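call fold(seq) -> tokens
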Amino acid sequence: LLNQGWIVQSLSPYFSPVICMRKKDRSLRLCCDYRELNFKSVPDQHPIPRIQDMLDSLSSSSWFSVLDQGKAYHQGFLDEESHLLTAFALYEWVRIPFGLSSAPTEFQRSMEGCLSGLRDYICQPYLDDDLVHSSDFEEHVKHVQTVLQRYQQHGVKLTARKCELFKSKVRFLGKMVSEQGYTMYPAEIAPVQALREKRPATIEELRKILGFLSYYRPYIQDFSWVARLLYDLLSAPAEAAWKKPVPAVKGGPQQKKRESKLKNQGHLSSHTPLTWISNHQQIIEQLIDCLSNPLILGIQILQNHLYCTASQEGLGAVLYQRTLTPPKKNYYMHSTQLADFNITIKYCPGKSNADADGLSRMSLDMDSYMSQCTEDIHQEDANHSSTFQPMPREEIQRAQERDLVIGRVLKYKGKNQWLSKEVLQGEHRDVWTKLCVDQQGILHWKTAERDQLVLPKEYHPLVFRELHQEMGHLGVEKTLNLIRDRFYWPWMQHDVEHYLTRVYECLKKKKPNKATQALLSTIKMTYPFEMVSINFLHLETCKQGYEYVLVVMHHYTRLAQAYATTNKSDKTVADKIFNDFALKFGFLSKIHHNMGKEFENQLFPKGCTEYSSHTTPYHPQGNGQVKKFNQTLLAMLRTLTEKQKADWKSSLSKVVHAYNCTRSEATGFSLFYLLFRQSPRLPINLLFDLKVDGRRETHQDYVTDWQNRICETYKITSKTATKEAARGKAYYDRRI
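ret:
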């Protein structure tokens, strides 16, 4: 857009939100939310042509051509005074953008001016679509040439792949137009044809069917005569009999009963059973034939824009959620699926939208629906297990023997003798003493914490999948630390870098760091749970209306917790912090947050023993620890599949757990280890039967050892955090 001169850099004081929408060909369209601008604009009253009038004027035509403008509104120019009003981000529009309320009418006026003298005679322009029609082929060629010359004079450009030339039948404005008239698409006749199988059981169901068919009464000759037997079913025969008059006081119960009887006389209840015979079914089929066979009806998604009429209930309520604020949303909005369509929703009450309203009220055949959605699975075919079966030790031993490197070491270790100088020549002698073989003949690498399994090469892809893909596609260092805590093999770091950069290529999705503008100042904490930092992250709306993530980060250990919420009100924040986080880890001394209204309230001082601190206005870098985690969380969520992204709430806790299980560069330990004094037990531990801690202790020994080790760990953590903070500050300040 910038290279083509359609937008320019802007200094406008105005701003409108921007969103990129997918077209039908999967390319992106830049859209702006101009609702506030439209509200303050004077609407253009130029009429848009009625589709029915345009179709009626084609009765004497036999040849058709559809000319489509690919760029549509972008071919029109804005006056210079309007440039500032269309600003978005750091740019403003020079061409007419999508989203302005007056854009369709202005565009229609320009097209009618461009084709002045030709409209209604040889062509029918409707926004960016133009139908050229003629009675014979030679005349049609001249008409198409005339319209193209007029477009050339006014500088209008067409999209060749969207144009249809010299056809006897074309698609135009949702109809299939031909010499005989216009009709529905064959694939869209199916919902109408399905009414043949509908056998209404009650008066209410019959009214729905008749209401739908009656909407097209102008197209069905003698509709009332054909459907007279069906309408007779809606009314009961009136009783004519003389009875003794019953006096009643005005407003009394006798009068109300009498008025109710007179009111319902000649009418049946909606749930009254029907006696449905073959004659009635033949009438329904006759009406359906009249409706679906002649050329009268058509529904199609237009190539450039979809105008949808819907009521405020049902589908209309779901579609209208896009215009509501998050606290008002009641339905899950499938924005990822609707993103392919540039859609405009217009409210239409049910009585004015009788065809769609009638079909939506048809009772659902649950038996047929369930048969289509159900798959029979036999018990012997079900692949399930109540317990997790680890990999057999014999299989691991055979895999080590098959490995070219490990098998050679096992061979020498099995002899249980010192190696000769010829064998040790060129080898690392200190490695030999750290290798040991257990009673089952499996080779391990001895460390101070535990014996690590020497992993054969054939299991490397499995480990990378479990500790990289299933752990949120973390970077090289974090993935390497997860593997080092459990396995050993030579050249491990080289293999990890190769897999993450050449095989998975997920590092390409990482967000680059931007240039900094000020010196870095760090926040120093001296004991666990002294302070937590909180912030909100806004994501795409998923099921049940969740679209926000409340991030709570423990400043000392870097432990992170994330809570999916439907809104970011102060009550929601207080509920998650004090009824969940605080009950798990204890009440907090300090809470660090930005100056959002959801944080600046009276709820936080009640839960804090000292005070709450906040960042300076318009300076999110003051809460940098949470902001950095937000980047990591977004990068991990970005690696989910499209199906998982639509329901990201289900994967949120797993992704955060994966983050907490990795080693932090700031502390030198994993967040899980700092809390529980042991490495996390992951599925890969169960698969290879890896022990988290091989020692067997009594409760007293465990408590004593835990106290000593946790004190030592916290000392190392404080020292490492101070060292890393100084190193990070020096690196950060270098980029100013």
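Residues 393-509 form a domain with the Endonuclease III; domain 1 fold (CATH 1.10.340.70).
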